[in-house]
Amino acid sequence: MSVAAVLTAAGSGSRLGHALPKAVVPVAGAPLVVHAARALLAARGADASRVVHLVVTAPAQHRADVLRALEAVEAGDARVEVVTGGRTRQESVAAGLAVIGDDVDVVLVHDAARAFATPDLVARVIDAVRAGHDAVVPGLAVVDTVKRVGEPRGEEGWPVVETVPRAQLRAVQTPQGFRRDVLVRAHAAGAARAGDEATAASDDAGLVEDAGVAVWVVAGEEAAAKITTPRDVAVAELLHGPRSGARADEEA
Ligand SMILES: Nc1ccn([C@@H]2O[C@H](COP(=O)(O)OP(=O)(O)OP(=O)(O)O)[C@@H](O)[C@H]2O)c(=O)n1
Ligand SMILES: C[C@](O)(CO)[C@H](O)COP(=O)(O)O
């Protein structure tokens, strides 16, 4: 089974507030995009399938930074390519998808912002597509009670409309995996939404659902949490940085 991946790294990282785009910000010894690329390229499905073509989306003004960062990735015989991303994540994924050949069976879509997702998670997603699911997402059970709210009332707050039964909810992560033809059709059908953050899909599985195709959830992992704010970076440094190993040694 031939697998390609689109690694989204074209966002600005406005909530992180760093001078560089988020994907090239160094965390735990390497830029986020490098950690994410390494996990994708290290993964092996049960039939030894692996990513043979990695397409990374970069901000137009920072293509050179992304290319330079990726020089640190040992790609073996996999092809690594950088394309310019779009105005939204959906547009960026579409730009990546456009350069993937039709000889590819499975496409993974992964966020550089989920830099510490493990190769095991990547392999789990590949295997679920291989097992016959058209679209697969990793998900975690929701630990908070979730309320649906109505329109805000000034600065005061929001009225609660209902409590959503959380046993049925999953917080969805990346990498998400798709049969290539299914993902291409879903992006084509949703293309009119792509240019504006207000209408764009927040994940690729959402586009596939809208196209009437069933989506399957496999177990996600805490390591695949999205790095959005400076606090997330601080947590990632503690969990994955050099001091995390030192602490483990001290405790042993
Ligand atoms: N036009 C865009 C916007 C986002 N992304 C990517 O989509 C992923 C998820 O987006 P998010 O975490 O929201 O990143 P940013 O858009 O960079 O962050 P912010 O919303 O804080 O600006 C990231 O890997 C980001 O690089 C992308 O490739 N193209
Ligand atoms: C794709 C995603 O990571 C799944 O949870 C998420 O929807 C990305 O959202 P963002 O608003 O673009 O960060």
TrEMBL record:
Classification lineage: Bacteria, Bacillati, Actinomycetota, Actinomycetes, Micrococcales
Keyword Nucleotidyltransferase: yes
Organism annotation: Cellulomonas oligotrophica
Protein name, entry field: 2-C-methyl-D-erythritol 4-phosphate cytidylyltransferase
EC code: 2.7.7.60
This protein's UniProt keywords: Isoprene biosynthesis, Nucleotidyltransferase, Transferase
Pathway participation: Isoprenoid biosynthesis; isopentenyl diphosphate biosynthesis via DXP pathway; isopentenyl diphosphate from 1-deoxy-D-xylulose 5-phosphate: step 2/6
Signal peptide bounds: none
Family: Belongs to the IspD/TarI cytidylyltransferase family. IspD subfamily.
Catalytic activity: 2-C-methyl-D-erythritol 4-phosphate + CTP + H(+) = 4-CDP-2-C-methyl-D-erythritol + diphosphate
UniProt site positions, description: Positions MEP for the nucleophilic attack: 166, 226
UniProt record, GO biological process: isopentenyl diphosphate biosynthetic process, methylerythritol 4-phosphate pathway
Enzyme class name: transferase
UniProt site (Transition state stabilizer): 15, 22
Function: Catalyzes the formation of 4-diphosphocytidyl-2-C-methyl-D-erythritol from CTP and 2-C-methyl-D-erythritol 4-phosphate (MEP).
A molecular-function term among this protein's GO annotations: 2-C-methyl-D-erythritol 4-phosphate cytidylyltransferase activity
Entries under Pfam families matching the protein: IspD (PF01128)
